[in-house]
Design a protein that fits this description.
Helix content is 27%, strand content 28%. It is an alpha+beta fold. Among the domains are: 68-128, no CATH class; 135-189, no CATH class. The protein starts with 25 loop residues before the first helix and ends with a strand.
């Protein structure tokens, strides 16, 4: 039996960052600086920061890698809206409102495709249609991150499910307008 989309409640992630005190010894400063750089590199790969300073003092921005886990989680939580027992969406009343919310992490074109496929409007209210959910990147399972160019990355994951069988999901992330967005999601059955 296929999985059905069910109501989901948004969850919040809280990142705790701790600072370091001043040290007198130059050797300790160097060791602390190296440790802080390593810690910062780890945090940058997990944070949702979409760009960094280019280092020359100008306002020009260059993209870091997209935060696959956070963006995928946010897209899924925004897409699967909490509903009442009739399937009416509690937070939004129209497709355009939901599309606007999804553009936080997805292109408008991708958001529109998903909202048109899974939601309908009736009497000024938004309803989630009962149908099989799309495949998602499972960030607890192995996946590949492929750099296409400095503004485009692809995340590729092969998986098996009862609903889809053996498949490959490719999610393309694009850096545009100073932040990363999910540009496309493409599932291909491998069987």
């Amino acid at each position: 039996m296929g999985w059905r989309i069910v109501s989901a409640v948004m969850s919040a992630l809280i990142l705790g960052l701790s600072g370091c005190g001043m040290m007198e010894d130059d050797q300790e400063k160097t060791a602390s600086s190296s440790a802080n750089q390593e810690k910062q590199s780890e945090l940058e790969s997990k944070e949702m920061d979409d760009f960094s300073d280019n280092g020359n003092g100008s306002d020009e921005k260059k993209p870091n890698k997209p935060s696959v886990e956070k963006m995928s989680h946010t897209f899924r939580n925004l897409f699967i809206q909490e509903t009442d027992k009739e399937g009416r969406v509690k937070k939004y009343d129209s497709k355009s409102e939901l599309v606007q919310a999804l553009t936080e992490v997805a292109t408008k074109d991708l958001a529109q495709v998903y909202v048109e496929e899974y939601y309908n409007e009736k009497d000024g209210k938004l309803y989630l249609e009962a149908k099989d959910a799309p495949a998602w990147i499972n960030t607890k399972q192995p996946y590949q991150t492929k750099r296409v160019d400095s503004h485009t990355y692809q995340v590729i994951q092969e998986a098996k499910s009862e609903l889809y069988g053996h498949y490959r999901l490719t999610v393309t992330f694009k850096f545009q307008e100073d932040h990363w967005v999910i540009q496309s999601r493409n599932m291909k059955r491998i069987d």
